[in-house]
Prior knowledge:
Low-confidence stretches: 226-248
Number of helices: 12
Radius of gyration: 18 Å
Amino acid sequence: MELNCRRSVAALTAAGFLWGTTVPLSKVALGWLPPGWLTFARFGVAAVILLAASRSGIRAAFRPAVLVSGAVGYGGSVLLQNAGITRTSVSHAALLIGAVPVLVAIIAALWHRAAARPLAWAGFAVSLAGVGVVTSGGAGGGTAGGDGLVLLSVLLSAILVVAQPRLLFGRDPAAVTAVQFLGAAAGVLPVAIFTGGVPEAPGSLAAVLATVALAVGWSVPWLVSSSSATRPASASLPAAWPSWPASR
């Protein structure tokens, strides 16, 4: 039990660290790959790793709803995020992505018709207003178009977090995530081909390393906890790994 707990904590720590580095790493990687190809690379590599690590639960998780949720919730959101990052600053994108927990709480309250307290709604409003004030100025290299794309990606990600419990019911969370990543890679591939053409040779080692870190990073937390009896769960876990809080 103690070993499982340590692995879960290690996985959560890895998730938090990797989530925090997503935007700056993406900014570097986008210097080489267009948004579509970067999204495909991230989920394609992560899907292969997770499919190999969670083979026993793949059959139960391989359902159309799971594939579609991955294509839209993961592939769509990260594609929009990458497109937005190319048009806005790292600080603006990171701030907007940090609003995911607030949007998750709001969507969950509306979706499940949960009765949130007035103080909670006031907190939601203040948080969103703060993000709007900071990003509306356009300072620091941010643009309204780029911020809008990132915000839309955040909205899709938050919706996936709220919808995830139904997809996870009776299934292995790691297998569900693997199938969702597969759906994301398959869904974004046509977009990458038609909008990005054939990727050029990398112009710098930093862009390659950033791409590898982003791709492998999506599967690292699951590999850390793959032999645990229980999956890590936390209300504050970043939405990049929504299977964990939803499987609680």
